[in-house]
Design a protein that fits this description.
It is built from twelve helices and ten strands. With about 325 residues, the protein is of the alpha/beta class. Strands 1, 2, 3, 4, 5, 6, 7, 8, 9 and 10 form a ten-stranded mixed β-sheet that branches.
Length: about 325
């Protein structure tokens, strides 16, 4: 597959992650349609507005507006597309299937999930078995501040792979589109390995930000007891990854704390959802990894405790 095969893009889930990456893709010149409801009017009128922020000074470094070819409130108003970016929260995956059926052309459309946790690619594969299923891991600090507006505090990088590593050509083509859009992106030739690495950050920092009282990441790395707990959670994730055949290095684990210290007072996406009283992705980020670990015979008391705490709060 070539990048020219991915000419038309459709975004489902115009939250922070979806707006940021699809905004960059549209700004680079590719066709973008957005399925939106409450934000439709604002997006149609003003496009996607992206602002790059220096986390140390909180000052704007760059601003740009990305055009959207069309915004639709109903999926059946959207023609079949080359690539569907699914950036909605995994809590609504079941609700998306009927909408996606009118957008996805069997055997042609690539589905790219930019969602947290485990099990999302497998879920979409069950409903669209004829289509390439990709997953993107977004190592980024980005927040949606108002309809159609996102702020980026740390550009980070993206890894894109395919379910079961079955569609490397489609994954590599998507990687090139992201690169052409100014996003540091690489191909994850072993998608499951990349997913477990991402969980090394998401499980502790998304979870502890909620159960420790609704705090940003700078407060977590400043408290020794929370740092210790985060380290324990990471080690449990690494244990399961190892049992599943995926290696995670000491250097990678240490790097999770180093990069977090540079984020400043960053609020993880799960914390933002929790504070806004929206559903939190408990099952994909904490429940599914715990279940997979237990199935492999791993002892994960800290993750089990965190999972229980989160279910009691949200």
């Amino acid at each position: 597959m070539k990048t020219s095969d991915l000419a038309k893009w459709t975004l489902v889930g115009p939250g922070a992650v979806g707006l940021y990456y699809c905004g960059r893709i549209a700004y680079s010149g590719r066709y973008l349609c957005v399925l939106a409801r409450s934000d439709a009017t604002e997006l149609q009128a003003n496009g996607i507005r992206v602002e790059m922020i220096d986390p140390e000074t909180n000052q704007s470094k760059e601003r740009f507006t990305a055009p959207i070819e069309c915004v639709r409130r109903k999926a059946d108003e959207i023609a079949a597309t080359d690539c569907v970016v699914i950036a909605a929260k995994s809590t609504v995956n079941h609700e998306l299937i009927e909408s996606l059926k009118s957008i996805v052309e069997p055997g042609h459309t690539v589905l790219l999930s930019l969602q947290n946790g485990l099990g999302n690619a497998e879920f979409f594969a069950q409903h669209f078995p004829e289509n390439p299923i990709l997953a993107g891991l977004c190592f980024v600090c980005v927040n949606r501040t108002k309809p159609g507006v996102v702020e980026n505090y740390h550009p980070g990088r993206v890894e894109i792979g395919s379910l079961g590593d079955r569609w490397p050509g489609a994954a590599k083509a998507a990687v090139e589109v992201f690169k052409e859009s100014g996003v540091a992106t690489s191909h994850a030739d072993k998608l499951d390995s990349a997913l477990w690495r991402k969980l090394c950050w998401n499980i502790p920092f998304n979870g502890l930000s909620i159960v420790a009282g609704g705090i940003a990441t700078d407060k977590i790395v400043a408290q020794s007891e929370l740092v210790t707990r985060a380290q324990t959670l990471m080690e449990e994730v690494r244990t399961v990854a190892t049992l599943a055949g995926h290696s995670i290095s000491d250097r990678f684990i240490a790097g999770q704390f180093a990069v977090t210290e540079k984020m400043g007072a960053y609020k993880p996406s799960s914390l933002i959802d929790y504070l806004a009283e929206r559903p939190v992705e408990i099952e994909s980020i904490w429940g599914e990894p715990l279940r997979r670990g237990q199935a492999l015979g791993a002892n994960m008391p800290e993750l089990a405790k965190l999972y229980s705490e989160l279910k009691a709060l949200v």
